[in-house]
Design brief:
The protein is of the alpha/beta class. The chain has two domains: 279 residues, Mur-like, catalytic domain (UDP-N-acetylmuramoyl-L-alanine:D-glutamate ligase, 3-Layer(aba) Sandwich); 136 residues, Mur ligase, C-terminal domain (Protein-Tyrosine Phosphatase, Chain A, Alpha-Beta Complex), CATH 3.90.190.20. The protein has 15 helices and 17 strands. Strands 4-3-2-5-1-6-7-8 form an eight-stranded mixed beta sheet, with helices on both faces. A six-stranded mixed beta sheet has the order 12-13-17-14-15-16, with helices on both faces. The protein has a three-stranded antiparallel beta sheet with strand order 9-10-11, covered by helices on one side. Helix 1 runs parallel beside helix 4, helix 4 packs across helix 5 and helix 7 packs parallel to helix 8. It is globular, with a radius of gyration of 21 Å.
């Protein structure tokens, strides 16, 4: 076990007996550390159900193309915890991370606190101690009581599309979930809204009105769409003709358009050339990522495709299915594993019209709260998918190798995606 893992294991043991959505554990700890959340660079706070990470990836690419230094906070990580914290453009170094974690651990002095809370406090300390031009801050899962929601005066807020997810914490209706996400909105900060269901939009409109905010809305106040293979963006200030996003999938035109709108609405110093360069250079691991080399890729013959995506809810699955449908036709093999708070049926349903040649299921290694591969396979067969439980990613890929010219898609969980990247020897940087 590495020193970082040992520290994180100790911090995990401080988890409170009951999870309550509040900031009551965060605030006192932040105060003891000098309130680092009040000493951050101009911050863009992002909430939503899907596309948070992609939107942040575009904003980072745009700002870096413009010569700016950027902090980023994302979760969860794929292979190494360091991936969650990017300091002025570079993943936090292990020595610096360990020192900050141990300082926060000492100040916390054994008090009950969740893993996400204590590591977010650590991130805020690192961000406050390291100069940068901007901070791109992703919520964990909610809004109002999300651990990140202690920044009082963000430069701007973005709410990406809201859908059903984490209902046990956020509510069982889109209105309840949207009300929680709306908690990141702040009086005096501008807001940009992604495409929303009517029920969610109505809640967001009321929340913004109470705060005196006039958000701009995707597909109403601004548009970003694919035209002749390019991204054409338009708002009240004009039209920009841009190259397509480097991230695959029709939905990435929406995500890129949302990020461009935020950059323009928040007054970020990015011109058309910066947007174009950012679109060419953007990367976001495990989001429809092609795997072209590595130990696992070598298990497939030449002529097969291997793709990796961490999408894990119905909205993400729908975007993934649209991406596959837009590609030249090939036999499709799904290799999937899921956490047991997800319904495999809901995820698989959108792939029905793609007629997968095979669904190969896995138990996610090292995750005690994962669905068993046999359970996923049984539930897939009940939906009339040709499904088979596999013992490992290696055995699944060897089975996929027998289907000539297959497009192999590993999907269903970011935890599975991280395991695959590690075993393939692909470490995000």
């Amino acid at each position: 076990m590495s020193r970082t893992d040992a520290i994180l294991a100790r911090l995990s043991k401080l988890h409170p007996r009951l999870i309550d959505l509040s900031l009551d554990r965060m605030i006192p700890l932040l105060e003891k550390l000098g309130n680092p959340q009040d000493h951050l660079p101009p911050t863009i706070h992002v909430a939503g159900t899907n596309a948070k990470g992609s939107t942040i990836a575009y904003l980072r690419a745009f700002l870096e193309a413009a010569g700016k230094t950027v902090h980023v906070y994302n979760s969860p990580h794929l292979v190494r915890f360091n991936e969650r914290i990017r300091l002025a453009g570079t993943l936090v170094g292990t020595r610096k991370l360990n020192a900050a974690l141990e300082e926060v651990e000492q100040v916390n002095n054994g008090d009950p606190i969740t893993f996400f809370e204590v590591t977010t406090v650590t991130a805020f300390k690192l961000f406050a101690d390291t100069p940068a031009d901007f901070l791109l801050l992703e919520t964990g899962m909610g809004g109002t009581y999300d651990t990140t929601n202690v920044v009082r005066h963000p430069l701007g807020t973005i709410i990406t599309p809201i859908d059903y997810d984490h209902q046990g914490f956020l509510g069982n209706s889109l209105a309840e979930i949207a009300l929680n996400k709306a908690g990141i909105l702040k009086r005096g900060s501008k807001a940009v809204m992604g495409i929303q269901h009517e029920e969610a939009r109505a809640v967001l409109e009321r929340a913004a009105r109470r705060l005196g905010i006039s958000p701009v809305w995707q597909n109403e106040d601004f548009h970003g769409s694919e035209q002749d293979g390019r991204l054409v963006y338009s708002d009240e200030d004009g039209l920009i003709d841009l190259p397509p996003p480097a991230l695959p999938g029709p939905h990435q035109f929406d995500n890129a358009g949302l990020a461009i709108a935020a950059a323009r609405q928040f007054g970020l110093p990015i011109d058309a050339a910066g947007f174009a360069e950012g679109l060419r250079q953007v990367s976001w691991p495990a989001r429809m990522q092609p795997i072209r080399a590595g130990k696992l890729r070598e298990l497939l013959p030449e002529g097969h495709e291997l793709w990796l995506d961490g999408g894990h809810n119905p909205h993400g699955a729908a975007a993934l299915a649209r991406t596959i449908a837009a590609m030249p036709e090939r036999p499709l093999v799904l290799i999937m594993g899921m956490m047991n708070n997800r319904a495999p049926e809901d995820f698989l349903e959108v792939f029905r019209d793609l007629h997968p040649a095979q669904v190969l299921t896995l138990t996610i290694p090292g995750e005690e709260n994962a669905h068993k591969s046999e359970e996923i396979a049984a539930r897939a067969r009940a939906q009339r998918f040709p499904a088979k439980a596999m013992r490992s990613i290696t055995s699944a890929l060897r089975a996929a190798a027998d289907i000539e010219g297959a497009r192999v898609l590993i999907c269903g969980s970011l935890y599975l995606a991280g395991d695959v990247l590690a075993k393939n020897g692909t470490i995000p940087d």
